[in-house]
Specification:
147 residues; alpha+beta; six-stranded antiparallel β-barrel; 3 helices; 7 strands; 30% helix; globular
């Protein structure tokens, strides 16, 4: 009798298309729903053989990752910059290349070993800066995927 009631409840849930019925039905046939996620920009971890320093004011910071639209770098504490702060002079130093632009602080988040990572969005890049950044990212991408 209990089996009949359970079957009725399952059939009723399927016809209502409740989220739990939808999930249990998918798990029965082992198929997964695939969601398409598209990134606007690919973030590349900084390769130690191509290190990047981020210079803001008279301080240099070690970059952790870089993308076409921004950079993440290590800072000693969470109050070095303010969220949404505009930085008039951000210089990326990639070996002999120096790329100067403005930036906007997107976040400062906890990182490992008591440090923090600061994410900056690039703003007001000129054509030369964009070209240099693309060259650097391409070198990193080729190096990263050739391993």
């Amino acid at each position: 009798m209990e089996e009949k009631n359970q079957k009725k409840m399952t059939d009723k849930a399927k016809t209502k298309r409740s989220p739990s019925a939808h999930l249990s039905q998918k798990s029965k046939d082992n198929s997964l729903e695939i969601l398409k996620v598209t990134r606007d920009s690919y973030r590349v971890p900084v390769d130690p053989s191509y290190p990047i320093q981020v210079k803001i004011g008279n301080r240099n910071y070690d970059a952790v990752n870089v993308a076409r639209k921004g950079v993440g770098f290590l800072v000693p504490n969470s109050n070095v910059f303010l969220q949404d702060e505009t930085l008039k002079s951000v210089m990326l130093i990639c070996q002999d290349n120096k790329i100067t632009m403005e930036g906007r602080v997107i976040h400062i988040s906890p990182h490992e070993f008591g440090k923090f990572i600061c994410g900056i969005e690039f703003i007001n890049l000129d054509a030369k800066a964009i070209s240099r950044l693309r060259e650097y990212l391409e070198k990193c991408r080729i190096n990263l995927f050739s391993k």
